[in-house]
Amino acid sequence: MVQKLEGHHARKRFGQNFLNDPHWIGKIVDSIDPQPEQVLIEIGPGQAALTREIIAKSGHETAIEIDRDLAAWLRSIFPETLELIEADALKLDWSKVHPGEKLRIFGNLPYNISSPLLISLIAVRGRVTDQHFMLQKEVVDRMVSAPGGKTYGRLSAVLQRYYRMMKLFDVPPGAFTPAPKVTSSVVRMIPIAREETSPEEDAAYSEVVAASFSMRRKTLRNSLGKLLTAEEIESAGINPGVRAETLSVSDFESLTRVYLAKRAAG
């Protein structure tokens, strides 16, 4: 019998949907494949569906939980094997989480914060071995979509610059309490080994991508007009008459270099 926090109900403001199906719990844990010597960080352990199995295999875990009641309960259930950080994962200073060590991050992410949380984790990618997240299927499909695909967009272009991503499998609504109205998916994210980029370059890349997708189905000539002229877009080797959804990460990087040079020139 799986022990749960009696009387605790999923809180809408935290986007809580608790995984409770042993089959899917086991499949996710097998995908993560936790080992005793690894630093395992779970975001949003909730009622410990994954936590319990991860600790059983690795002997320990660090978890980030915003819900005070759940945090207190988790401490009582795992007094020796769980290091609990009671905090909002979106506001967490990751430099203070096992500093200097390689991290394996995972979790069933609340739908209402999934995209901004994924973006915030880019800053710590240099210390990450891999990430395994369960998210809304629609979000995962966008994350892994290739240029030209119907779901390729801003999130795709930003995350694919930093991670190699693989959709592993879908998880049905019935695996959760309460059951969400949408299907979930599990994604594996492995940071891409690349030359270190500056915060200025990262911010400029995000700005170019955001502007490019700001006018869906419009050409770059229109969507990037406030940042770059048609001639400047052409100087990046890009046709200003194409749409953002046809561009690869390297295309956006070329546009970013031109944009940075333009700013530097004043």
UniProtKB/TrEMBL annotation:
Query: Ribosomal RNA adenine methylase transferase N-terminal domain: which residues?
Result: 24-193
Q: This protein's superkingdom?
A: Bacteria
Q: List locations, semicolon-separated.
A: Cytoplasm
* Keywords in alphabetical order: Cytoplasm, Methyltransferase, RNA-binding, rRNA processing, S-adenosyl-L-methionine, Transferase
NCBIfam families attached to this UniProt entry: ksgA
Q: What is this protein called?
A: Ribosomal RNA small subunit methyltransferase A
Q: Which InterPro entries match?
A: KsgA/Erm, rRNA_Ade_diMease-like_C, rRNA_Ade_methylase_Trfase_N, rRNA_adenine_dimethylase, SAM-dependent_MTases_sf
- Which residues of the sequence carry a binding annotation for S-adenosyl-L-methionine? 17, 19, 44, 65, 88, 108
- Per the UniProt record, the source organism is Mesosutterella multiformis
EC primary class: transferase
Q: Which SUPFAM superfamilies does the entry mention?
A: S-adenosyl-L-methionine-dependent methyltransferases
